[in-house]
Design goal:
Structural class: alpha+beta
Helix content: 10-25%
Shape: globular
């Protein structure tokens, strides 16, 4: 079954991710998306609709518009079509973290037979998204990449072809926010409960852990401003801090410029 591995890795009583089903759509453009995922590591998940599911690759450094750059893309389990619109928080378990819908649109295979191209390990395609456009290729590789995170035939390279949409701009830095909500990770997290992350955060140290800690702090301040509650450590705790005494005003966090 196309989604068997996807379902095996998840407890749908604990995750808001869709359980999904294989759902081929006829007479419509093929969907693609890129989801920016802060889990044990920050990475970007490229998903291409094919035969009723989303073929998926995890791209640790994100897509590059520079034709000289080869980005590692690890093939992961197929995902349900519904997952392509998912943006939110996975509180615990497999993939625990924050998911942002970073880009979406349609894709067109440049090969007549996608399955044959996948077997060969050379899939050329055109993207028409908000941020990613033009011709690309996914190439299965070996060598030093084969040992990365399990490697083997899971290791591919994502490369931009030279066209009007290629260039040396860092698109992940230039356009870091969601195409669905317009927000960043802290905006997504501010709609949930920051306390979940203080007890179940997926990254506990290093650069990713520090990034998540900063996001939690900014999310708590955003949530506090929206609710009128105090910000800072109290807003990040398991329980909301008591309201300020009569005649005293809670300090407001500075607005983000």
């Amino acid at each position: 079954m196309a989604l068997e591995e996807y379902k095996r890795k998840r407890d749908f009583a604990k995750t808001p991710e869709p359980s999904g089903s294989v759902a081929a759509r006829k007479g419509r453009e093929l969907f693609f998306c890129v989801q920016k995922h802060l889990a044990s590591h920050l990475h970007y998940d490229l998903r291409l609709e094919h035969d009723g599911v989303l073929l998926s690759w995890a791209v640790p450094k994100g897509p590059s518009l520079d034709t000289s750059v080869k980005r590692l893309a690890m093939k992961v389990e197929d995902h349900p079509i519904e997952y392509g619109e998912f943006e939110g928080v996975i509180p615990e378990g497999y993939g625990a973290g924050i998911v942002m819908l970073w880009d979406r649109g349609s894709w067109t295979p440049e090969s007549a037979d996608v399955d044959a191209a996948l077997r060969k390990g050379d899939l050329k395609f055109t993207l028409n998204g908000y941020k990613l456009k033009g011709s690309w290729v996914l190439v299965r590789t070996g060598g030093r990449y084969a040992g990365a995170r399990g490697g083997g035939d899971r290791a591919w390279l994502l490369i931009k072809h030279r066209d009007d949409w290629s260039g040396d701009i860092d698109i992940t830095e230039f356009a870091p926010k969601s195409v669905k909500s317009g927000g960043d990770f802290e905006d997504i997290l501010a709609d949930d409960t920051p306390a979940v992350w203080t007890s179940n955060r997926p990254a506990k140290g290093g650069e990713t852990g520090a990034m998540l800690a900063a996001i939690i702090d900014r999310a708590a301040k955003l949530k506090a401003r929206r609710s009128g509650a105090p910000s800072g450590n109290a807003a990040r705790g398991q329980r909301r801090a008591p309201a300020p005494a009569a005649g005293k005003r809670a300090r407001k966090s500075p607005r983000k410029k």
